[in-house]
Amino acid sequence: MESGESLKDTGFEIGLYTLADIARNPLTGKIISSSQRIKEIIQAAKLADEAGLDIFGVGEHHRLDYAVSSPQVVLASIAQATKRIKLTSATTVLSTVDPVRLFEDFATLDLISDGRAEIIAGRGAFLDSFPLFGFDINDYDALFEENMELFLKINDSEMISWSGRFRSSLKNAEIAPRPFQNKLPIWVGVSRTPESAAHAGSLGVGLAVVMLGGEPSSFKHLVDLYRLAGMVSEHQNQLNVSVTGHGYIAKTTEQAKDEFYPFYSNYWINLNRQHGNRFKMTREDFEEMTSPETVVFVGSPQQIVEKILYQYELFGHRRFMAQMDIGGIPFKNVARAIELLATEVAPVVRKEISKKQ
């Protein structure tokens, strides 16, 4: 794949992302260090690259139960261990980062990786970064919109003048370095908010639909709103949709469910606790969440293929990304699942989608 090719040119992309949560293994009671967690993430990306997957993402959190607060630093390490896989944040909390510094960091990553850097920007599921970096929660949306406006302007021009509410003005400022690509690809991560999907379309950036539960059809209106807004704003030729969500693959669906359930339940217990919720996932809950009709990608390679292809019919998306390393699941399990995704899912999906284009 040549740097700078569009998603339309290169076909359907399949990859992985991680949020780098640090959780105690519910079966052994052991917990790994942040150092080991980051090393395993780099190794997972290397495996994905060698197996022929297309994209690897690293998330951002500012808590002790997550190992990564700076995706660009980890992605730079991954760039040195890989050859062709695209590298993205997943997501960058755009409301609490300086857009100039963000651009410089990812432009540097793009130079290091010979044009493989991307950004998925979002508002973030946690609010920890607001007080940490001196921002007011009441400016939650306004910060995101202003920072997105500034970032896109920087992405377009190497010298800019700009003024806004939340940071110092810029006058004929040189923004360096410039990326290897003509522009850094930027996506907006959206889970349930129609306004955010429409805003992404109006800006002409990519839409990463985060689907963590429910039926795929319940997310279709987000994609429709995104494309409509892009068409109205005359950005329709720039629009791309990505689907992201939780997943795990084993040789059989029952094996996948048996292996993944303790860790997936553990993940949701920890996440709900962080948000002040004491909900615990039973095996019955898990079976319902991972049924063939839902958006959670847990099963045999064939079942995962069927889910991706069904969703392709709904969304016409160009990229699928799965998060598999959650809840303290051992790296050896993740490595096996990566291999199955690359060797038994990706080739079939790409072949079937190529027939439809």
TrEMBL record:
Any one of the GO CC terms: cytosol
Domain of life: Bacteria
One Pfam match: Bac_luciferase
Alphabetical UniProt keywords: Monooxygenase, Oxidoreductase
Span of domain Luciferase-like: 15-314
Molecular function GO labels: monooxygenase activity; oxidoreductase activity, acting on paired donors, with incorporation or reduction of molecular oxygen
SUPFAM superfamilies: Bacterial luciferase-like
PANTHER family: BLR5498 PROTEIN, LUCIFERASE-LIKE MONOOXYGENASE
Name used for this protein in its record: LLM class flavin-dependent oxidoreductase
